[in-house]
Design a protein that fits this description.
alpha+beta; about 425 residues; 4 domains
Length: about 425
């Protein structure tokens, strides 16, 4: 039993070697092969041209008695026409039609009675290939033109060489090439439909991305306006009540405070109008206070109750009351979006949230491991929203995979820097 086990263990790597060698060979072939449909078509047509030319010239020079030099030139035009059709369909039609008319005229009179058909089999294959290539690449109309002119060239050859029995051969040739043309039309139509669907999906994804980005910017703007409106309300209240709270104010000071209150009141009215424009019809005014740094533990607990393995670590001495509301809202939104992405794209993976309140900035790190279940797809709109918020504060954001196969989000939100990185005036 032990000997059998040892033998089976030795056979395992030996069985794996051919598989690994095959995978390595296939990967090298993929690297060598051209990328893109056009490059692949050029490669295929080049190989077909070499094969057809190497067969067509010997057949016509021996079986048909055609002159070698002229046959080589005409055969080259015939087999190169499919390759030329990739970029220049009209030139390809001219090349093949001219060669299709002239090649039968090169048949010697001695070989004419025994010739099965003015075109050899390689020439017929070249006809099928050029019709298929033009139709596949440029649509049914140019393909139909080549099919019609090629068939007319065959009829012309049959009329000019009455000594060759060509009636049945002409019918068979026309039928076969017609079938090739129809198949090429169907294939080209299917590919074009697939390309249109792909472009439509890309356009839809782009529009969705733009819409989500606009919505995120609007939400950021609403958050900022809510903060400014709240501050303006405080200014208006303080200025209006200054005469009652502060003793000994001169009439000039009272008038100054009244002007400040009036200006704040006017600005507050304009701010509320802007908020009405920024909010959509189905959005009610947010009466609850905006979330901040102190609300992140509750957010983590909510995600944890949903079944996710989330841990939160907080450090730093900076108080939330000393940090601007804009920074706090942005920090909350970034953690919220990072947790949402982790749960969506790496379900079942542990998530670690680190929140550091340094004297000069809030530092956020959200790290999740590799998921244990299939993840849902997404277009990365949340990351764009993060970048918008970080750029607004003049901070930095780094996102990407880590060595463990998970994903890490690192954000730094400075307290007193604007989007250009300059110090804001107090």
């Amino acid at each position: 039993m032990r000997a059998k086990k040892v033998r089976s263990r030795k056979e395992g790597p030996e069985k794996e070697r051919p598989t690994k060698a095959l995978q390595h060979t296939l990967s090298r072939i993929r690297r060598i092969l051209p990328r893109g449909r056009t490059n692949a078509l050029i490669l295929i047509l080049s190989l077909v041209a070499v094969v057809l030319y190497s067969v067509l010239v010997p057949i016509h020079t021996t079986a048909y008695g055609s002159p070698v030099a002229v046959t080589m030139a005409l055969a080259l035009a015939a087999v190169v026409a499919p390759l030329v059709s990739v970029r220049h369909p009209n030139l390809a039609i001219i090349l093949f039609t001219a060669s299709a008319v002239l090649i039968p005229l090169m048949i010697s009179r001695a070989a004419a009675p025994s010739a099965p058909w003015p075109w050899s089999v390689p020439m017929l294959l070249a006809f099928a290939v050029v019709v298929a290539a033009i139709t596949f690449r440029h649509g049914w109309r140019p393909g139909l033109v080549q099919f019609g002119l090629g068939s007319a060239a065959g009829v012309t050859a049959a009329i000019m060489l009455p000594s060759i029995p060509s009636g049945n051969s002409l019918i068979v040739t026309t039928s076969v090439i017609g079938g090739v043309y129809l198949v090429a039309v169907l294939l080209a139509g299917r590919l074009r439909l697939g390309d249109e669907l792909t472009r439509e999906r890309a356009h839809t994804a782009q529009e969705q991305s733009r819409r989500v980005l606009v919505e995120e910017r609007s939400r950021i703007a609403r958050d900022l306006h809510d903060i400014v409106a709240h501050s303006m309300s405080l200014i208006q209240v303080q200025a209006s009540t200054a005469r009652y709270r502060v003793e000994g104010l001169s009439p000039a000071a009272i008038a100054e405070f009244d002007d400040i209150a009036g200006t704040a009141r006017t600005a507050l009215v304009e701010m509320r109008r802007l908020l009405g424009v920024l909010r959509t019809e189905d959005q009610a005014a947010e009466l609850a206070p905006q979330q901040g740094l102190d609300d992140i533990p509750a957010l983590v607990e909510t995600v944890r109750r949903a079944g996710a393995d989330v841990e939160l670590a907080q450090r730093g001495d900076a108080k939330a009351s000393d940090i601007s509301q804009t920074v706090q809202i942005s920090a909350f939104r970034i953690v919220q979006e990072a947790l949402s992405n982790a749960v969506r794209h790496a379900p079942g993976a542990p998530v670690r949230v680190s929140l550091v309140r340094d004297p000069d900035a809030v530092r956020i790190e959200v790290r999740n491991g590799a998921g244990t279940a299939p993840s849902s797809t997404g277009a990365g709109h949340g990351l764009r929203g993060m970048r918008e918020r970080v750029a607004l504060l003049g901070g930095s954001l780094e996102t990407g995979p880590d060595d463990s196969g998970g994903w890490t989000v690192n954000a730094v939100l400075p307290y007193d820097r604007g989007p250009d990185g300059s110090e804001e005036d107090g």
